[in-house]
Amino acid sequence: MKQHPALAPYAAVHPYGLGDLLHEQARSRPAMPAVIDGDHTFTFAEFHERVNRLAGVLRAKGVKRGDRVLWLGQNSFRVIEALLASARVGAIFCPANWRWSVEEIAFALDDFDPTVVFWQEAEVGTNMRAARAGWSSPNGNWICHDGCPGEDEYEALMATADPAADFDPVETSTPLLAVYTAGFSGRPGAALLSHESLIIMAWQGMMAQAIDEESAYLVSGPMFHVGVMMGTLGTFLAGGRNVFVARVDPVELLESIQANRITHAFIAPPTIAQMRAANADGRYDVSSLFADPQMSDYRIPLVMPAQAPSMKRMGGYGQTEIGGLSSVLWMGGTGAGRSIPFIQFMIADDAGVEVAPGETGEIMARGPLVMCGYWNRPEENARRVVNGWHRTNDLGRRAPDGSLVFVGPKTTMIKTGIENVYPAEVENCLRTHEGVADVCVIGVPDPTWDQNIKAIIVRKPEAAHPPESFIAHCRERMASYKKPKIVEFADTLPRTAAGFVDRAAVDAAYGGGGYPKVG
């Protein structure tokens, strides 16, 4: 749309990215702590300077607008630092799943084609080095963030970089964060979220969880999950302090809650059980976060004060591709609640035509919160947009009061702990095993993890591989949580009239069920 000439001067006023937000925090809260990670504590002013330095490092390594930066390591304050430095230079930043197998890391390297890779030696270095050795691209600059003799080292490069701010404002719609989501079609894809989407996500996290500048958020969940990013960025937006741990350890979490007077956190249910056992004698003071030493008021992984809107009315609907939770009960309504600002929902048929209230159809979304698309997936991007709406691959309907009701995934999804696993991805892996003739992967109910992954396998003639062989095959090629825990053999698998595996019949015959549903 052509702009009126008299308004042209204001075109330079409106761009506002995540890097601009940090710059403002450094001005308005210079002496307040922004991040805490072990012995590292940095105020907003100090953090701003570090991000300036890291942006300089990225530029020196050849990172330009639209280039990619990959993080291969565990949680660290440097993840947010690298995200913000990428924002400064207009790059796209991806925090990868550090539990990926060598094959999965190699896939991401080829698919994402990063100009710079930040990697970690401790605990995960063997896999990172193996994937690096097999990578075909000569363009990658590898920077070790936790100290690796003989390698480019993060802090050494930072020390020689320019601390002055030097960046051009970016358009709010520019992609910034890439998050690899479980493979709907058997191949994971990196959903690209814009600066604007992340700022809206931060606002939603801040409002829903009652985060303010006095808050301390324990970044104890994996930062490649938007659920964790919502709280982390919400705390950053509010001017609170983010407290990082590399990975989940129940005693370390208890110590951090006590030492840092944590007010908000992301803690999965199995970890809470371990923390209760470790604090059976009440030796750790967790009163800043929980009502008592046994954490009896714990209800959901997003831990927050009892008066927070999300605690008063829990529930909602969302996915990575639409900026996390974007229809929520704390905004009103029933079922999965009502949409937050900056996103629209429509329930439509396969042609993208809205269906009548009460009828089930695909949930479609539009607005600045929705992703910019998947990286390097032109066919999928074309398929997922219809008439200006994003297809979520989820089914829903409108309640009589207009609320959104989530019916379930169009493609079956298994929920194990906090992880989403799509059967197609596990099945594709199992089909590369020499003993598999046919396979169907299902979710079976589990009292601790919600679901376990079970593989029903038809073995090839003469094949006699034991169950452990198929489990090990997946463990070597995928993140461990994706592997089947249970393997059962069958002579044949039931099929529909069209020739596809009848998943409902497999569920009925082999104990499947408990798939995630809300509303």
Any idea what the CATH architecture of the largest domain is? 3-Layer(aba) Sandwich
> How many alpha or pi helices?
15
- Largest beta sheet: what is the strand line-up? 2-1-11-10-12-13
**Average predicted confidence as pLDDT:** 93
**How much helix, percentage-wise, in residues?**
25-40%
Cα separation of the termini: 40 Å
Please give the largest β-sheet: 6 strands, mixed
Gyration radius over CA: 23 Å
Show unreliable segments.
none
Tell me the CATH topology of the largest domain.
Answer: Rossmann fold
Domain AMP-binding enzyme C-terminal: 425-499
InterPro entries: AMP-bd_C, AMP-bd_C_sf, AMP-dep_synth/lig_dom, ANL_N_sf, ATP-dep_AMP-bd_enzyme
Domain AMP-dependent synthetase/ligase: 23-375
Protein name: Acyl-CoA synthetase
Explain this structure to me?
- Helix content is 29%, strand content 24%.
- The mean pLDDT is 93.
- A six-stranded mixed beta sheet has the order 2-1-11-10-12-13, with helices on both faces. A five-stranded parallel beta sheet has the order 4-3-5-6-7, with helices on both faces. Strands 17, 18, 20, 21 and 22 form a five-stranded antiparallel beta sheet that branches.
- It is built from 15 helices and 27 strands.
- It is globular and about 65 Å long.
- It has 519 residues and is an alpha/beta fold.
- The chain folds into four domains: 32-234, ANL, N-terminal domain (Rossmann fold), CATH 3.40.50; 248-311, no CATH class; 328-368 and 378-409, Luciferase, domain 3 (Roll); 414-510, 2-Layer Sandwich (GMP Synthetase, Chain A, domain 3).
- This is Acyl-CoA synthetase.
- InterPro entries: AMP-bd_C (IPR025110), AMP-bd_C_sf (IPR045851), AMP-dep_synth/lig_dom (IPR000873), ANL_N_sf (IPR042099), ATP-dep_AMP-bd_enzyme (IPR050237).
- Residues 425-499 form the AMP-binding enzyme C-terminal domain.
